[in-house]
Structures are given as C-alpha cells and as structure tokens.
Design brief:
- The protein is an alpha+beta fold.
- It is built from 3 helices and 16 strands.
- It has helices at about 85-95, 155-170, 195-205, and strands at about 10-15, 20-25, 30-35, 50-55, 65-70, 75-80, 105-110, 115-125, 130-135, 140, 145-150, 170-180, 185-190, 210-220, 225-230, 230.
- About 40% of the residues are buried.
C-alpha cells in the first residue's frame, strides 16, 4: 500500500482522549489532529517522538491532519487501525497466507455470529467458507517480539469464540495478526496484560481456529505485507 500523498513529518506533543493528538510541524506550527486508533497505543505516545501525518482537505473533516506513524527507537510503526484489513487482503492476494488466495470470492464486513461482522468472508465451491478476522498489532516491549493485545479486549475474546463457532459449524475460522512494524521476528498472545483473551485464544485453537501472523515493511512512503512470521504459542492448558 503506497500512500497517495506524501506523509507530513512532525513531532508529537501529546496524545489524549484516545482520538486526538497535539504536534508541532517542521515549520514550527502547532496543530491538533485526529488519531485513528482508540486503543491504548502502549509504548507509542512518548512526547517528542517523530511522527508522520496524513493531510486531508475535506471540508467535512474537523481536523486536517491524521496520525499515521510513530518512530519508536528508530523503528517506524504504523498505528492506523483502518489499514490492517486492507493490508491483510493484499497479503492474501499475494499468496502470503497459506491457501487463502485460492478462494474464488472475498467479501468484506459480512454479518455473522452474535450480532457481529467478520472482516472478510472467503468462499469457494470446492473449499467452502473461511471466516477471517484481522487484528492490528503494534505492541513490542522485548526486542524482536510483537504482542497482542496491549490492553484488555473483551471484544477480541468474543471474536475468537465466534470463530470457534464457525469451525464447529463446518467452516474455517481464521485469525490474522497484522504487525505494522518490521523489527519483530516472533509473536505471542499477551497473557499477562489480558489473561482472558489468552484463554479465549487457547480455546479457539483447540476448537480448530487457525492463526497467522503477518509482518509488514513500514516506511513513511508505504506499508507492504512481508510474509508470515513465527507464533510463540504456549502449551494448551486444560480449559
């Protein structure tokens, strides 16, 4: 995915109310912009961090600038949670995620489960249905290791249960963890920050839910899926 317009460099002053940030542009102007990530963004909001912004001219937008990337210790990290579905679709089409590229039809945002929407529904006359959920990953507190989630997510645990239901109904249930940074070689589910999600992940795996982890190459010019990396899965406990 190449950004249609060059991103604007700036320096982060603060991120607050989950959806707003203050920054200083290269010309010294102080601005307030929107943050397309309502999560905790743990480890990514240090004042003084170099950041990159997309610029929008629409008169319907309250803020002209939107936060897209943060430099963390020399690593550029994508924070926009609106991009992982698009990037996962690019990875599927490129044949980077198992056999998912062999499905003949891909539909986005389809209703399923208990009043939910699946990110992608893949269908094929020979292969049947594959329900694909995508999670954005940007948290890393140990060198080379990406983790999810970075804070408790009951909604994420619900998605795992619903994918397990789809498997028991005779379909495939697939979780894709999309890492918007390129300094990680392994991935783990973060059981200390959200033990309930970790338990839901174990239950889902035992029920037959598949899990893939996709790393991306990230720069202020583009974000590109860069294939699969290893998942460090804990031994299944008796649930």
């Amino acid at each position: 995915m190449i950004f249609e317009r060059p991103l604007v460099p700036a320096v982060l002053v603060q991120r607050y109310k989950r959806f707003l940030f203050d920054a200083v542009l290269e010309d010294g102007r102080a601005i307030t912009g929107s943050c397309p990530n309502t999560g905790s963004m743990r480890g990514l909001t240090s004042p003084g961090s170099p950041i990159w912004l997309s610029e929008h001219d629409s008169p319907t937008r309250k803020h002209r600038y939107m936060l897209e990337m943060v430099d963390v210790g020399g690593t550029v990290v994508g924070i926009n949670t609106g991009l992982p579905n698009r990037l996962a679709e690019e990875a599927i089409n490129a044949g980077q995620i198992g056999d998912l590229h062999l499905y003949s039809t891909l539909q986005r945002e389809q209703k399923y489960g208990r009043n939910s929407r699946i990110d992608m529904l893949l269908t094929d006359p020979q292969r049947g249905r594959a329900y694909v959920e995508v999670k954005n990953v940007h948290f890393s507190r140990a060198s080379g290791l990406a983790e999810f989630p970075d804070s408790p997510t009951a909604r994420g645990a619900k998605h795992l249960e619903e994918l397990g239901d789809m498997v028991e109904a005779g379909h495939r249930g697939i979780m894709i963890y999309l890492i918007q940074r390129d300094d990680c070689a392994t991935f783990r589910v973060c059981d200390d920050l959200d033990p309930l999600y970790a338990q839901a992940f174990q239950r889902a795996r035992q029920r037959g839910v598949e899990a893939f982890v996709v790393k991306c190459r990230v720069s202020p010019q583009q974000i590109t899926p860069d294939g699969l990396i290893m998942m460090d899965e804990p031994a299944f406990a008796d649930l």
